[in-house]
Write a structure and sequence with these properties.
The complex is a heterodimer. Chain A is mainly alpha-helical. Chain A has helices at 2-22, 26-46, 50-75, 91-115, 127-136, 140-160. Chain A has three domains: 1-85, Four Helix Bundle (Hemerythrin (Met), subunit A); 87-117; 125-167. In chain A, helix 1 (2-22) packs antiparallel against helix 2 and helix 2 (26-46) runs antiparallel to helix 3. Chain B has a single domain (5-91), classed as Orthogonal Bundle (Helix Hairpins), CATH 1.10.287.3510. The chains are: A mainly alpha, B mainly alpha. At the A-B interface, helix 1, helix 2, helix 3, helix 4 and helix 5 of A face helix 1, helix 2 and helix 3 of B.
Chain lengths: 167, 104
Amino acid sequence: MINLIFYFFAFLAIAAALYAVSTKQIIRSVFAMFACFFAISGLLVFAQSDFIAIAHLMIYVGGILVVMVFGIMLSQKASLSNVVLQKKSISLHQYLALLACVALFVILMYFFYLYGPNTPIHYVGSDIEIIGIALLTKYLLPFELVSLLLLAAFIFTAMVTRKNKNL
Amino acid sequence: MDINISHFLFISAALFAIGFYAAIRRRNIILVLIGIELMVNAAVINLVAFANVNTKANAADGKLMALFAIVLSAAAIALALAIVVKVYQYFNTINPDQIEEFKN
């Protein structure tokens, strides 16, 4: 039963990602990414890391995708239902990209098959405690640095998008 | 309940390949960003899955690396979308093939 839920999340993640990169309307691909990120955070729960899963759900589904919808609304003049990607691109480019993608997948699976571990994931207890202790002892400096970088990135974002400032 | 780690490797390889396809197909800047996000997510799945393999090592290492990767990709996506909005105001398109020059 639990394994069935895992396979459902795996199928949902891959199918939603495939739909997102293959659909013609860009707003549909963003909404497919909602399903994909939700399934990925479900998979992270199965990898025995609850805190990462909740953080992933909040940051991606609650933050990044909403920002992406705003970006689409601000960068397309037509109404959202009519935003269609141009079809006129060279099809050779598409086939080469597809070939490179399949080749990358095959190479990755080959090396995982050769060298990857084949052990089940053990449950070592809730990860909130070890993450909290590690963040305030061993990883204190990277934690502070990444928070400073996030602040700098958001200040820069607000500066770039100011209206009375040329590019 | 114990899921084999090779299943996670398969899912992350598939997601990475799909994201790579979206990134090099580049029909639209937003789709390129979505592809990059998919690749980051594949890496996060791998990091979290490998964090639990060896129980004797510190299990927080892989998880914290995944957390930092999520934070950095959030910052990158915010910056990239701001630049996308500016590029649209300047060029009136966000198709990468139609943006020819960056200097006026």
